[in-house]
Amino acid sequence: MKLGIVGLPNVGKSTLFNALTKAQNAQAANYPFCTIEPNTACVTVPDKRVDALTAKVAPKRTIYATVDFTDIAGLVRGASTGEGLGNQFLATIRECAAIIHVVRCFDDENISHVDTTIDPLRDIETIETELLLADIQSLDKRLEKTKKLAKANKDAKLLVEDLSALIEHMNAGKAASSFDRSTASDALAQIWKELGLLTAKPVIYCANVDEAAMAEGNSYADTVAKYATAHTSGFSRICARIEEELQTLPPDEQAELLQSYGVSESGLEKIIRVGYHTLGLCSFFTAGPDEVRAWTIHKGWKAPQAAGVIHSDFERGFIRAEVISYDDYMHYKNEAECRAAAVLRTEGKDYIVQDGDVMHFLFNVWDTYGFWHWLRHHRYPPHTPCARPLWRQVHQQNSFKKGKKLSPRSKRDLPCRPLCSQGSGGKSPWHRF
Ligand SMILES: Nc1nc2c(ncn2[C@@H]2O[C@H](COP(=O)(O)OP(=O)(O)OP(=O)(O)O)[C@@H](O)[C@H]2O)c(=O)[nH]1
Ligand SMILES: [Mg+2]
Fold it and tell me: pTM value?
């Protein structure tokens, strides 16, 4: 998951980025346009359930889910026409899954505001207008390109109509996310993701408040919260400055300091929780002696789709999944006890994976793909004692007797060795050479 941080200059984007990524790699200072080049960092998703699973299973390694954060330069009114630093850097945000929109919700005379006064709704509107204009600019470019193709291509002709309708919709001040795509052509659906429209992305409004308002909030943050609810977007209240300070402390002191402000969750935990909720994501786990690992999927995904996140073979050859809910997994001593207590369920292709499921997938790629692959390359079905066609075996044996080296083509048969050995009494046919 990739999240991009946007907002006006000097509202605390880089401070928040540093706090979230536990690094001081983004310069944060009290002047607008402090950030010029985008900063990117990858963060592991803190998950107490993964910690508990690790403590119980004691695996060789633990792998947490990760989130990428990108911090860019501040946007100002007129950025689409080159004001401030322009809007070129928004290209970095196009590949993000969601946008974190930082809104200044603190009074501090020492920290300048580009519009001098503090007004969260005005600030939100400024940024959203700029995002809309940036989208229209990129759509205009795409439309021009598509128009050239439309003379010879029917799909392109349909796409020109769709893009024009979309631009018209956005010129009326509406976000791309509210565009009705049900009547649009397949061509638009195909390029939708590639367009990377900023106003089509889910938004998490992040009210940057001062220390005093961390627990209870303030009137600015309440306005932002209301706006977020009205736009079915995520909302999170954070004090970027305190969060940044927290990172300089050891973990136990961090928790103490947070508690002294009346807060139980760190900024990172909050943003990730809201991010998962806004994007409709959840986690399932795999646990074994080698590895405990958290996997991120969309809520409502079925078992084969979830298996596909681990490896496409798991999805292709999915047979069934063995599932234990996280609570049951922690309650019983081991998997054998879970099985005895009938809390280890065997689920099929239609099972909808639940948040916190501990899963084990059974799959067989041989069934769906391997057989045809085998026939095509070896001309013999799988249970033939020897994997290679007879003529090739004879040819290779003769060559060997004559003292010739194995040709590269013969060596290409190597991948079939494990299967050959099944049919040849545990020994691969190569033992004859
Ligand atoms: N009082 C107070 N100051 C803050 C808070 N968050 C950030 N600041 C200060 O605001 C100033 C600007 O912060 P930055 O993080 O550099 O802001 P930015 O949004 O990245 O700014 P640009 O990179 O210029 O777009 C810094 O001096 C911060 O210390 C806060 O919660 N309270
Ligand atoms: Mg910055």
Answer: 0.79
